[in-house]
């Protein structure tokens, strides 16, 4: 989605509004108009991501994501595959329905995201659901301990009391 037309329209509105002011007001508006592009792109992308999250929450079998490639966001719609007929894997405990939901921005290498997308499609769930399950499962496993290094009596790892 090319955001240039929206950024240009905002610049034009800012300059038109400043045209009624003094020369200094017009100069200030011109400087602002020339430097606001990154902030506008970020704000519009954040609004698109929030809208995509709302649409995804309203649909059971479809995930809507906003992906930024270069300077412009792209909307990606993924339909879940029908559930497999084989034995189901034990799912991680889902969060309580009344629990607040936190949003995070996760940056992954494209190859890792593609593998996660494929795994989610294979499981018949959205990428978000798959990631939530992966994090929950990861938190259920005991943390790995580092191998002991060097001489002496130094210990590393996790302990529970």
Automatic annotation (TrEMBL):
Residues 77-91 have a biased composition (Low complexity). InterPro entries: Arc_rbn_hlx_hlx, Ribbon_hlx_hlx, Uncharacterised_HicB. It holds the Pfam family HicB. SUPFAM superfamilies: Ribbon-helix-helix (SSF47598). Residues 77-97, 138-161 are annotated as: Disordered. Transmembrane segments: none annotated. One of its GO terms (biological process) is regulation of DNA-templated transcription. This is HicB family protein.
């Amino acid at each position: 989605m090319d955001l240039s037309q929206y950024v240009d329209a905002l610049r034009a509105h800012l300059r038109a509004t400043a045209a009624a002011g003094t020369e200094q007001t017009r100069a200030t508006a011109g400087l602002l108009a020339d430097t606001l592009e990154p902030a506008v792109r970020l704000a519009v992308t954040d609004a698109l991501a929030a809208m995509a999250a709302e649409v995804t929450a309203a649909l059971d079998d479809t995930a809507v994501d906003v992906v930024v490639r270069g300077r412009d966001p792209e909307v990606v719609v993924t339909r879940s595959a029908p559930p497999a007929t084989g034995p189901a894997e034990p799912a991680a405990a889902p969060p309580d329905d009344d629990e607040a939901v936190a949003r995070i921005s996760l940056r992954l290498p494209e190859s890792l995201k593609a593998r996660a997308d494929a795994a989610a499609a294979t499981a018949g769930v959205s990428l978000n659901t798959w990631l939530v399950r992966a994090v929950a499962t990861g938190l259920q496993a005991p943390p790995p301990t580092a191998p002991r290094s060097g001489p002496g009596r130094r210990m590393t790892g996790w302990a529970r009391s």
